[in-house]
Design goal:
The chain is α/β, with parallel strands linked by helices. It is built from 11 helices and 7 strands. It binds adenosine-5'-triphosphate (ATP) and magnesium ion.
């Protein structure tokens, strides 16, 4: 029997640290290696949905209906480079709509259960907050990958995230843990970036991935074409960086 999908959330309450970019491109790198991957877009901004060329305004149903109306997640999955469970702006109202629901923190965990046999990995892209949508992601996940922008490193932000994870562990999901912290948007020309990574390693040790994602314009270009960087520029350094991260995550899983 094939094991159920491993569920990984991509979380950092700080905005613009490459959560969405990492979710999609790591998923594409896993798919290249033959893994079946579902990306769940849990962000009302719907950036992941858009970066696979799907117009969120054209959707009749989205993750909002899955979470709030218990619609089957299969109804909102579109097949692109990877499978995407789509978001729309409606999701902005999900936290309020869910606030009076019994079991509101476990809505996503329940929703993905029926498709966990269909995939090897389920990746969840989260919004830049620690609200109920992110709590749902952390409750559904076994592992969390934390992209961190090294230019404006915010240790306090990471400590806040760890506190939230500790609460989720106590109350909702005892086994969830950080798979790794990923330095993103690294500008290799600056001393500051190097120092920021050193501070990160001093504080978080081997939880910091060996992989680094350098800054390149390719990451801004690819989503405009509705593609991952692996498809947009298959032989470029950016694609290679996420392939290397895929190897690292897969090797960790075997530890
Ligand atoms: N390595 C990189 N080099 C250059 N630009 C990048 C890189 N990674 C991501 N970007 C760009 O930075 C911006 C933010 O990335 P992304 O949307 O993935 O962050 P996010 O954490 O998901 O943001 P939000 O918190 O708003 O959801 C995007 O325009 C993206 O194209
Ligand atoms: Mg995002």
């Amino acid at each position: 029997m094939t094991p159920k999908a491993k569920v990984i959330a991509f979380t950092n309450q700080k905005g613009g640290v490459a959560k969405t970019t990492t979710t999609l491109n790591l998923a594409a790198a896993f798919a290249e290696r033959g893994h079946r991957v579902l990306c769940v877009d849990l962000d009302p901004q719907a950036n992941l949905t858009m970066s696979q060329g799907i117009d969120p305004d054209s959707l009749e149903v989205s993750m909002y209906d899955v979470l709030v109306h218990r619609l089957s997640i299969r109804e909102v999955i579109r097949k692109r480079e990877v499978d995407v469970a789509c978001a729309s702006i409606d999701l902005a109202g999900a936290e309020i709509a869910m606030s009076a629901m019994i079991g509101r923190e476990r809505a996503l965990k329940k929703a993905i259960e029926p498709v966990r046999d269909d995939y090897d990995f389920i990746f969840i892209d989260t919004p830049p907050s620690l609200g109920l949508l992110t709590i749902n992601a952390l409750t559904a996940a076994q592992k969390v990958i934390v992209p961190v922008q090294c230019e404006y490193l915010s240790m306090r932000g990471l400590i806040q995230l760890q506190n939230t994870l500790a609460m989720v562990r106590d109350e909702l999901n005892p086994d969830v843990e950080i798979e790794g912290i990923l330095p993103t948007l690294v500008d290799r020309r600056t001393v500051h970036a190097k120092e920021a990574i050193e501070i990160l390693e001093e504080n978080f040790g081997d939880r910091v991935f060996a992989s680094r994602i350098n800054k390149t314009i390719r990451f801004a270009e690819a989503p405009v074409k509705g593609m991952s960087v692996l498809k947009y520029d298959p032989n470029g350094k950016a694609a290679y960086a996420y392939r290397r991260l895929a190897e690292e995550v897969l090797a960790n899983g075997k530890r």
